[in-house]
């Protein structure tokens, strides 16, 4: 994974040779969106010719093949990449406003389209929408009424409309910090599930302290295994709880375990996520009346000492004993990068 990240950075540096840095938006670990509106004429007689030049440059410098989607806006470029570029010998696909009827409305499988998963496809099917042509010609007010904002977004996608500007700063509605994990197997045992919840909760608490933040809201996301989801009729549950602003390990994990016990009914678990929101600055420690100030201050200092040990010597040098129990994942997860093996040469 470390090598993958290194190559990603090198490829994006090549992109900066063709347009300004602010007009390159790394969309994911293996995709970037380039706004070439003002620069493509410097490098060729057509956008497709410039796309070919970028492909050749990456190939010559890094030995890697790249696929390119071209469009009049980001959503057209994304659809061109997914639906066409990956399936022709040039590894280039194009969609423009004038080709939307041919390139987008002709799509018969809704799940082939970026942003439409199996569940959304079923919801659209219930509205008698089975392909992109039908989606594009459905009343947009009905889609918004039935699906909310996502209904309007899907309608715009069906017409190849996207008003997003790559260079516009992203507006974050509400800051949050969290972590999630796909478990290595189905977890049935309550003690094992709670061990992982505590591990992730402590990791989120450490991130809050690192950013000098307190969380006023805590949410727990539990994803069931495939078989459990089929039997239960839902994929899991997501519950949130308002709390007194804190970043204390013990307080956060206790609340998380309470949320879990209130909502879990024995289903096999495969995914766990912990998220904190309603963040505020950690300007001081708010003591409560139900515990002695000495114990609260001592626990706060202990958390700070543990954080410092982790920073200086690595996470695995000091772990809670529960992480050594069956089902614990914190030690193994510490060696991963983005959920993947980091590679021995970078350890």
TrEMBL record:
Task: Kindly state which keywords UniProt assigns to this record, in alphabetical order.
Answer: DNA replication, DNA-directed DNA polymerase, Mutator protein, Nucleotidyltransferase, Transferase
Does Transferase show up as a keyword for this record? yes
Cite a single GO MF annotation: damaged DNA binding
**Any Gene Ontology biological process:** DNA repair
Q: Name one Pfam family in it.
A: IMS
- Which InterPro entries does the entry mention? DNA/RNA_pol_sf, DNA_pol_Y-fam_lit_finger_sf, DNA_pol_Y-fam_little_finger, DNA_polymerase-Y, PolY_HhH_motif, Rev_trsase/Diguanyl_cyclase, UmuC
List the record's Gene Ontology CC terms alphabetically: cytosol
Q: Which residues form the UmuC domain?
A: 1-117
Q: Has UniProt tagged this entry with the keyword Nucleotidyltransferase?
A: yes
Question: Which family does the UniProt entry place this protein in?
Answer: Belongs to the DNA polymerase type-Y family.
Tell me what this protein is called: DNA-directed DNA polymerase
């Amino acid at each position: 994974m470390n090598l993958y990240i290194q190559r990603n950075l090198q490829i994006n540096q090549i992109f900066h040779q063709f347009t300004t840095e602010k007009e390159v938006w790394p969309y994911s670990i293996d995709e970037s969106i380039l706004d070439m509106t003002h620069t493509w004429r410097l490098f060729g007689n057509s956008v497709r010719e410039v796309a070919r030049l970028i492909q050749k440059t990456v190939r010559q410098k890094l030995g890697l093949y790249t696929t390119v989607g071209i469009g009049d806006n980001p959503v057209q470029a994304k659809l061109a990449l997914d639906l066409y570029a990956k399936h022709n010998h040039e590894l280039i696909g194009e969609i423009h406003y004038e080709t939307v009827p041919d390139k987008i409305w002709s799509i018969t499988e809704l799940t082939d389209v970026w942003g439409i998963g199996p569940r959304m496809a079923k919801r659209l099917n219930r509205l008698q929408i089975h392909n992109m042509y039908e989606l594009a010609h459905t009343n947009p007010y009905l889609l918004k009424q039935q699906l909310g904002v996502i209904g309007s977004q899907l309608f715009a996608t069906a017409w190849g409309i996207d008003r997003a500007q790559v260079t516009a700063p992203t507006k974050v509605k509400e800051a949050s910090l969290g972590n999630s994990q796909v478990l290595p197997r189905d977890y049935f045992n309550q003690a094992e599930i709670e061990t992982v919840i505590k591990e992730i909760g402590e990791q989120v608490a450490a991130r809050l302290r690192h950013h000098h933040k307190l969380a006023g809201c805590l949410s727990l996301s539990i994803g069931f295994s495939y078989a459990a989801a089929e039997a239960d009729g839902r994929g899991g549950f997501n519950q949130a709880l308002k709390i007194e602003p804190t970043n204390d390990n013990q307080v956060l994990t206790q609340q998380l375990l309470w949320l879990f016990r209130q909502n879990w009914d024995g289903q096999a678990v495969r995914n766990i996520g912990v998220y904190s929101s309603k963040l505020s600055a950690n300007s001081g420690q708010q003591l409560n009346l139900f515990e002695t100030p000495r114990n609260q201050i001592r626990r706060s200092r202990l958390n700070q000492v543990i954080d410092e040990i982790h920073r200086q010597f690595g996470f695995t040098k000091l772990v809670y004993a529960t992480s050594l129990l069956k089902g614990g994942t914190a030690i193994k997860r510490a060696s991963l990068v983005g959920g993947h093996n980091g590679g021995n040469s970078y350890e």
